[in-house]
Amino acid sequence: MFNLKEVKAHCDVPCGIYDPSTAQIAALSVIRMIDLMNKAEKGADEAAYLNDMARYIAVKETEAIKCKDEIVIIWGDFIKPPHMIKYPNLHTLAHKIMMLGGAAKQHCSREKGMELLAAVNEFAEIFWEIKGVKTQTVTAPYAPSESIVSPVL
Amino acid sequence: MIRFFKVSGHSLFPLLRDGQRVFCLKVFPFSKLSISNIVIFDKAPHGLMIKQIKSIEKQEYFLQGTDPFSIDSRDFGTVNRSDIKYKMWFRF
Predict the structure, then answer these.
(1) B12 contacts in A (CB within 8 Å)?
(2) Confidence at residue B92, expressed as pLDDT on a 0 to 100 scale
């Protein structure tokens, strides 16, 4: 008579899959492209140089947009009003990521890319905390070898 | 007759919070169900769900959450009265 059963008050697709790791990888890719652009040398083969540079820019553009899109999905679909009460900074943080994603497209500054990664990592930390999953900060095992917040699974 | 349930999810926020306990009464054919009542019903494949009555037409109930992304009658249509098992009495 008094046993406690769970009743579902779910939203979206039940047990929807959300994970900020795609956004983190995208932010790392932005930094990697900036590194490659800054390292590229204009040698005798100008066409090859321009070809490489165009590809780096195109990938940087795509990854910055991907980073923003992934955060928007989590922000808009997963984050609910109770989360906003617990983490009042979330809207500001998400907006900051949108701005930094735009700046990453506009500039080729490594500093801007690092700011984007830091903001996405902060978002990931909150996301996993909401999910009740502990996190750790690890160094990505590939260039640009920067820190990422990942779940302890 | 009387049963406790634990709410899982945010679709009825701010009326109900995730993890909140609700005290419910079993719904009988003679029980009165009105618009804005919060009810527990059985809906395959989701199982037992909790939503609010938005409208009633004959024996069909349109049940809805407060969250725009809530899975409710907007997705699976109206729910027959016979599938409504409990009515929330109070929360704590």
Answers:
(1) 9
(2) 83
